[in-house]
Amino acid sequence: MKNIFIGGVARSGKGTLAEMIKEKCPKYNHISLDYFTASLKENFPETGIKTSVIIGDSSPKLALLLSKTMDIMNDKQERFIIDSAHIMPHDILKYIDRSKWDVIFLGYPRTTTEEKIKIVLENDDEKDWTRKKTYDELFYRIDCLIKISKAIEEECNELDITFVDTSTNFNAQIQRVAEKYKQ
């Protein structure tokens, strides 16, 4: 059993996939890097780490931060799933031992901004960041995330990394990947 790194854009299904894998294989511990990213931004602003849902220049810093953590996890009996909306494929590959980690990225490169907003608003609850934005702000962010999804898919194809397109049939796509991790 390998550890799992799940990357990809916001609202692409990273947490959902991690929880489905945990249901099928309870030996996994799920850690969302996004909580630590928010803490770093708030408590250590000098790091330059940002929590914007748009993957940016924090990606190399967060991949480096994870490198030592992953090294420690490699030697444990426990198995881990780490998910992050802030790391690009080329950055995580600099540090991850692929013989010990599966790497999966999710995105929605084949949808329209309007369609993704509709799906997000139908499925997100009142506590999600998507509910705190005006329609114009949400439109801008989702449009950027679709463009980043396309870039991530291209990188994954070049780097031989699994990419899961959650543009359509979201639940079926997530379930298909989770099935690979039955206990």
> How many distinct domains?
1
Count of DSSP helices? 7
Strand content: 15-25%
Structural class: alpha/beta
As a percent range, the share of helical residues equals: 40-55%
Overall residue-averaged pLDDT value: 90
Query: How do the SSEs run, as a string of H and E?
Result: EHEHHEHEHHEH
Shape-level CATH architecture: 3-Layer(aba) Sandwich
CATH class: Alpha Beta
Q: What best-fitting shape do the alpha-carbon axes yield? A: globular
Q: What report would you give on this structure?
A:
It is a single chain. This protein has helices at 14-24, 33-43, 59-74, 89-92, 113-123, 135-159, 170-178, and strands spanning 3-8, 28-32, 79-84, 101-107, 162-165. It has a five-stranded parallel β-sheet with strand order 2-3-1-4-5, with helices on both faces. Helix 1 packs across helix 7 and helix 5 packs across helix 6. The protein has seven helices and five strands. It starts with a strand and ends in a 5-residue tail after the last helix. It is globular, with a radius of gyration of 16 Å. It is an alpha/beta fold. It has a single domain, classed as Rossmann fold.
